[in-house]
Design goal:
Order of helices and strands: HHHHHHHHHHHHHHHH
Distance between the termini: 52 Å
Radius of gyration: 21 Å
Largest sheet: none
Shape: globular
Number of strands: 0
Strand content: under 5%
Oligomer: single chain
Number of helices: 16
Length: 299
C-alpha cells in the first residue's frame, strides 16, 4: 500500500497491549497518507488487540470506525477494498466469537470466506474457514477445518500455508472432543512435526503438550507423563512456567494412582489457570476440580 509499513509483521499476539501502541503510532501515518483501505485495515487490527483482551465494546466501536471508512470509499468495488471488507468481517466475527456469541459470528465468517475466495485472497479465506472450524459444532467444524486445510495445502501463497500448524491443532481438538483420540493424536503429531521444522520454541512446546494430552486420553498415562515432565524441565530451564503443563503432570500422576504426588501440581495449575479470564468464564468446573484435588494447597 504505497510503501506504508506492513503492520501485520508488527503483531505480538502474546502482548496485544504493546501491539496496540505500535499500531496507534501508525494511525497518524495512515491518516496523512490518505489511503482509507490501509487506514481501515489497521483499525481492524487495533480492534483485535482489544478483543484479545476481552474489551469487546471497544473492539466493536473501532470496527464501526473502520466500516465508516469503507462505506465512504469512492470506488468500493476495487480489489483492495474487497480485502478490507474481508478483514472487517473476520475481525467482527472474531470479536463476537470471543464474547461467546457464535450465532452472530458464523454468518460473518461465511461471508468473509466467500468474498476472500472471489478476491483470490487465500490467506484470509483460510483464516475465515479456520474460524468457522472453531465456532461451528461437531460435523460442521470438521467440514470447515478440512476445507481450510485443503485451501492452505494447495495455495501458492506462503502466508496461507502458514495456517497449517494451527489447523492441524484445531482439527485435532475437534477429533479429540468427539472422542476420536487416535485421529486427534495423528494430527497433533503432524502439527508437532510442522512446528519443529519452523524453529518456534513456544509453538513447538504447545504442540508437544497436545501430543501428551492425546496420549493420556488414549490411556497411555506413562508416556504422557514423560512428555509433560520433559516440558516442565524445559520451562524450568528457561525460567518460565505453564499452568497447562502443571495440570497435565497432575492429571497423569492422578491417572497412575499417585494422588499425593499430583496434589502440588494441581495446586500450581490452579494458581496459574485461575488467572485466565476465558477459563474463569467458560471452564469453572475444570478450575474447581484443580482446586479440589490440590486440597486447597495453591503453591
Amino acid at each position: 500500500m504505497n510503501n506504508l509499513p506492513d503492520f501485520d509483521q508488527l503483531w505480538d499476539y502474546n502482548d496485544p497491549e504493546k501491539t496496540e501502541k505500535v499500531f496507534r503510532e501508525l494511525l497518524t501515518v495512515a491518516e496523512s497518507a490518505g489511503i482509507p483501505d490501509y487506514h481501515a485495515q489497521l483499525l481492524t487490527q487495533i480492534a483485535r488487540t482489544h478483543s484479545l483482551r476481552r474489551q469487546f465494546d471497544d473492539a466493536h466501536g473501532i470496527l464501526d470506525d473502520a466500516e465508516t471508512l469503507i462505506v465512504n470509499i469512492d470506488n468500493p468495488s476495487n480489489d483492495l477494498t474487497q480485502t478490507t471488507r474481508v478483514r472487517l468481517l473476520i475481525e467482527r466475527g472474531r470479536t463476537f466469537n470471543s464474547a461467546g456469541d457464535t450465532d452472530s459470528a458464523r454468518p460473518l465468517f461465511k461471508e468473509a470466506w466467500e468474498l476472500a475466495q472471489q478476491a483470490g485472497e487465500d490467506y484470509h479465506a483460510v483464516d475465515a474457514a479456520h474460524m468457522l472450524g472453531i465456532c461451528e459444532p461437531a460435523d460442521a467444524s470438521l467440514m470447515w477445518n478440512n476445507r481450510a486445510m485443503a485451501a492452505a495445502e494447495t495455495s501458492d501463497d506462503p502466508r496461507a500455508r502458514e495456517w497449517l500448524g494451527p489447523l492441524y491443532n484445531n482439527t485435532g481438538w475437534t477429533y479429540h472432543d468427539r472422542g476420536e483420540y487416535e485421529k486427534a493424536l495423528e494430527l497433533f503429531e503432524k502439527g508437532l512435526a510442522w512446528r519443529t521444522e519452523r524453529s518456534n520454541p513456544q509453538a513447538t512446546q504447545i504442540a508437544k503438550w497436545t501430543v501428551g494430552r492425546a496420549k493420556r486420553s488414549l490411556g497411555h498415562a506413562e508416556e504422557a507423563l514423560t512428555l509433560q515432565q520433559a516440558l516442565l524441565e524445559e520451562h524450568e530451564a528457561a525460567g518460565t512456567s505453564d499452568g497447562y503443563v502443571f495440570e497435565e503432570v497432575a492429571e497423569c500422576l492422578f491417572a497412575l494412582g499417585r494422588p499425593d504426588e499430583a496434589r502440588p501440581y494441581f495446586g500450581r495449575a490452579y494458581q496459574e489457570l485461575s488467572k485466565d479470564g476465558w477459563l474463569v468464564d467458560n471452564e469453572a468446573d475444570r478450575l474447581n476440580r484443580l482446586k479440589r484435588l490440590s486440597d486447597e494447597q495453591l503453591c
